[in-house]
Amino acid sequence: MSDLDRLNHFNVLGEARMVDVGEKAVTIRAAWAVGEIVMAAATLECIESGRMGKGDVLGVARIAAIQATKRTWELIPLAHPLLLTGVEVELMPAHDPARIVCHAEVRCAGQTGVEMEALTAVSVGLLTIYDMCKAIDRGMSMRNIGLLRKEGGESGLWERGPSSA
Amino acid sequence: MSDLDRLNHFNVLGEARMVDVGEKAVTIRAAWAVGEIVMAAATLECIESGRMGKGDVLGVARIAAIQATKRTWELIPLAHPLLLTGVEVELMPAHDPARIVCHAEVRCAGQTGVEMEALTAVSVGLLTIYDMCKAIDRGMSMRNIGLLRKEGGESGLWERGPSSA
Amino acid sequence: MSDLDRLNHFNVLGEARMVDVGEKAVTIRAAWAVGEIVMAAATLECIESGRMGKGDVLGVARIAAIQATKRTWELIPLAHPLLLTGVEVELMPAHDPARIVCHAEVRCAGQTGVEMEALTAVSVGLLTIYDMCKAIDRGMSMRNIGLLRKEGGESGLWERGPSSA
Amino acid sequence: MSDLDRLNHFNVLGEARMVDVGEKAVTIRAAWAVGEIVMAAATLECIESGRMGKGDVLGVARIAAIQATKRTWELIPLAHPLLLTGVEVELMPAHDPARIVCHAEVRCAGQTGVEMEALTAVSVGLLTIYDMCKAIDRGMSMRNIGLLRKEGGESGLWERGPSSA
Amino acid sequence: MSDLDRLNHFNVLGEARMVDVGEKAVTIRAAWAVGEIVMAAATLECIESGRMGKGDVLGVARIAAIQATKRTWELIPLAHPLLLTGVEVELMPAHDPARIVCHAEVRCAGQTGVEMEALTAVSVGLLTIYDMCKAIDRGMSMRNIGLLRKEGGESGLWERGPSSA
Amino acid sequence: MSDLDRLNHFNVLGEARMVDVGEKAVTIRAAWAVGEIVMAAATLECIESGRMGKGDVLGVARIAAIQATKRTWELIPLAHPLLLTGVEVELMPAHDPARIVCHAEVRCAGQTGVEMEALTAVSVGLLTIYDMCKAIDRGMSMRNIGLLRKEGGESGLWERGPSSA
Where along the chain is substrate bound (chains A, B, C, D, E, F) (predicted)? Predict the structure, then answer.
């Protein structure tokens, strides 16, 4: 089987489809994704001071990230609908360069994995931070958004290697 | 006015709100965003060969990106609803490293900008590529997602400088 | 300009886009669509008797049709979001063959027409009738779904001619 | 039991409800639906030439059809939410009269059937073709939209007979 | 364990999360909720006369209530997605004071309860009545919205006591 | 004109419709709504202590309330889509009885009012509090949900009188 054949979102005619996973076993699935938004040091300061007393940027972004996991199948055309059983999102300030790092963990018992849900959580969490801070810093950028690890399913465990981009 | 005060998604008590833009003039708004997904060379080859005859990964991603702009206000908690008048999304293969670069341009006549819509288009376009290629390459990662330029509104023109991240 | 060029949902590279309507005037738009679902005579009888006292199939279908107009831009990838100002849906039993005929009228002040909203209302109204009656008649079929008339916009009035399919 | 009683989307008072399927067995369900959009010969030519090189009308319609299956329960008021395991959509040009024929196949393991999902895929696929071609042909009309076959569940296999409308 | 610890929508850092229910057994869940909207006697009369022949306020509200149960997880940020198997909504006029009382019953087989779905049905049903009657009575108010009973899950049966608010 | 005629969500046949507001002037609209959720004193204590350091129940409810305003037209069948320009939501603990009081203010420039958006914000804000505290207090109930004031439009200013329920 060539790699091309393995792009299984297409049938033999190359037409997009939602791959049938009906024959797959229901197993516990989990996925962890990460990503970050780089910003001016003054912007990060602003967010951090807000956390202390008022203006909870990270609290709003966390809710947006969690909610986005539940609508992943609406955003990604060929993704399967599935029933998530748990979602955790962590948003942590970091320095050099000034940034917020977002981690998401998503769990489900189903016939297909939750990698897209974890990646969508990270993307929407970071976009929400951008939205709330754009009035003071339009130059923010998002990077290093990727999968860290996934468990469950036929292909089993996968972990990002040290050399991954 | 301190920077903190300029995080205007919060009121004086630090509580989140949707900022009232009712007094702002309706002007033509436009925003351009960019971002890329880095992948194994073999994955890019697979996508490129698919474009030639069958398996149109980029065509599906483009549709997902355009549709996502119309739902940005559902994903981003404090974003205003607005009526987009035009969206264009471009997805281009590039090399060293192997990647797909996504550009989005969004237009609207309204009281608030369309930066979030352009950034959401790019994020969802890239996520859709990830979804369609993940069976052969889980190590892909997204980077350099940011605003390139925006026009219209009180703050007028903004362009990313050469030193931006 | 060839006909091909007039399929303006694509740019010069043939890539899908949401056409920019930002330069178009805001005018009053209206569209009327029609369609019908053909069924067994016993099914129609069942619906009609239900209308008299209990089991309001047509009332539920009418609500579904109206609601669908508000989400047309989510269903049709390149449709523009717009703010409908009025929707009316009529569902009428007819005979020889036994059927329900659905008419929809949609109004809006905007930069683009409401033909898709009227057609979506008809389609979803008929699908809802199918859903509610399928337990007794899976052989129902939908037909003659099309635009009757549209007003407003640059292209002005259009009416279905007598020879239309 | 009279036919009226079998319109089970209503309780004994004739009030709409979502029928309780909690006691039904989880079985593999599948449904096949079909429908077509009739158009001017020039319009079909335009679509077909587009397929060859640029302007992929059918590719966009296929994605819209697949996505619509995942939101059927939002469109059809009394439909049950369910987790689809697979969707395939085929769009084929045909002649005399000039038209595109849409076939959809939907699969699921659940307590209720997927007929509505298959019919919704066909309807939204055809509506999307209408949207993309309406600038050159407002007289297109949709017809012969119906169920071809369904499997699974208590009522088992059903196939459209030769005499169906 | 203190009560605070039992607000399990937060992790040990007090950050919101979607609690993992993956280890919980799948059991049959049911919940019953109630609520009412108080109005001027003339408004109730208007609704009741409408029921008799035309203007079916309660029929529209019932559909809105049923549909809202299917989207509860989109509205309530930390609610789990789940597949409802049945929903019934009853809307009854009552007097002294003039009001409509709404009862909802929701059923599901899952790892988490359906209390929120039943309460959301009642809230949206009452809001829909408000919408349809507000032109003649803006002073209507909603009250006594609460859970009556729930079954299933680890915590088993719960019933509202006589002294509940 | 009788009161019955003024239930204008129905046509002369008593069939539901989305009333045409296309002839109405675009004016600035605002609406204020209120409501409360009554709970055990221990539950309120739990929420209040959470606000101080961790477990921000009210912060999550505020976001849910704001987001719900943007989807009001999806929930309420005959509500018009409109573009909100501003939303503020306040959630305040109160005692005797122990409760959280929710105030919402919604603004828009449009052809129809925003009463439903303000009431929906309050309802969903209170439901979200219920969701987050239900593990320790299923007996909570919601009450006094109503409109306080609305401005703009043909009917102009309306304020709740002292004798309102």
Answer: 78-80, 116-117
pLDDT 10s digits, F7-24: 778 887 788 999 999 989
Mean pLDDT of E16-21: 92
Cβ atoms of D147 and D119 within 8 Å: the answer is yes
Confidence band for F154, pLDDT divided at 50, 70 and 90: confident
Return d(Cα F123, Cα E127) in angstroms, integer.
9
Beta strands in C10-140 (DSSP E): 27-38, 84-94, 99-110
Chain B contacts of C15, Cβ < 8 Å? 59, 62, 89-90
Show which residues on chain B lie within 8 Å of chain D, measured between beta carbons. Answer: 56, 59-60, 63-64
Contact call for F56 and A60, based on CB within 8 A: no
HSE-CB at F85 with a 13 A cutoff on CA atoms is 20
**Dihedral of the CA atoms B63, A84, D117, C76 (nearest 10)?**
-20
**CATH assignment at residue F111:** 3.30.70.640
CA atoms of A11 and A17, how far apart (whole Å): 7
Work out how many domains chain C is built from and give that number.
1
Identify which of E56, E51, E57, E23 has the alpha carbon closest to the alpha carbon of residue E37. E57
Cβ partners under 8 Å of residue F86, min gap 6: B17, B18, B19, B20, B21, B22, F105, F106, F107
Pair of tokens at residue C32? 């009327």
Tokens 């942590």 identify what position? A92
Of A3, A5, A56, A131, catalytic: A131
The structure tokens listed for D86 are: 């697979």
Structural domain including A103 reads 24-154
Q: How many residues does chain D have?
A: 165
Contact A88 E22 (CB under 8 A): no
CA distance C123 to C126: 5
Q: Would D96 be classed as within a structural domain?
A: yes
Q: Is F26 helix (H, G, I), strand (E, B) or coil?
A: coil
pLDDT digits (tens, 9 = 90+) for D124-139: 999 999 999 999 999 9
Backbone torsions φ then ψ of B66, nearest 5 degrees? -65, -45
Q: Which two tokens stand for residue F140?
A: 């909570």
**Of D122, D130, D147, residue with least CA distance to D38:** D130
Which of F3, F20, F96, F131 is labelled catalytic?
A: F131
The neighbour count for residue A163, using CB atoms within 10 Å, is 6
CA distance E164 to chain D (A): 29
Q: Which is it for strands C84-94 and D84-94: parallel, antiparallel or unpaired?
A: unpaired
pLDDT of residue D2: 52
The structure tokens 């408004």 sit at E43
ipTM, 2 dp: 0.95
Residues from chain C that touch B62, judged by Cβ atoms under 8 A, are 15-16
B161 in any annotated domain: no
**CA A71 – CA C163 distance, rounded (Å):** 45
Asked if residue A14 belongs to a domain, the reply is no
Sign of the C-alpha dihedral, residues E66, E69, E71, E72? positive
Q: Is there a contact between E16 and F60 (Cβ–Cβ < 8 Å)?
A: yes
